[in-house]
Amino acid sequence: MTGEFVEFTEGPISIALNLESNNVGVVLMGDGLMIQEGSSVKATGRIAQIPVKVQHVVAIVMQLLEKN
Description:
Largest sheet: 4 strands, antiparallel
Structural class: alpha+beta
Mean pLDDT: 87
Order of helices and strands: EEEEH
Distance between the termini: 35 Å
Pfam families: ATP-synt_ab_N
Family: Belongs to the ATPase alpha/beta chains family.
Number of helices: 1
CATH topology: Elongation Factor Tu (Ef-tu), domain 3
Shape: elongated
Strand content: 35-45%
Domain ATPase F1/V1/A1 complex alpha/beta subunit N-terminal: 1-45
CATH class: Mainly Beta
Low-confidence stretches: none
GO molecular function: ADP binding; ATP binding; proton-transporting ATP synthase activity, rotational mechanism
Number of strands: 4
Number of domains: 1
Helix content: 10-25%
CATH architecture: Beta Barrel
Keywords: Hydrogen ion transport, Ion transport, Transport
Strand order of the largest sheet: 3-2-1-4
């Protein structure tokens, strides 16, 4: 799933961006010098997320509404 944490056998935890049958794109969250084409990777089942307080969402929406 896009946005899911994935883990390389020989590298850091990463975030999946593109998951196709013949092409996978990830953002490495650390040193990826040992990762090569054909390296094994497994899904963790966890989605990358950042907790946000309701007050922050309201402030952003209010700013967007004021600009229109």
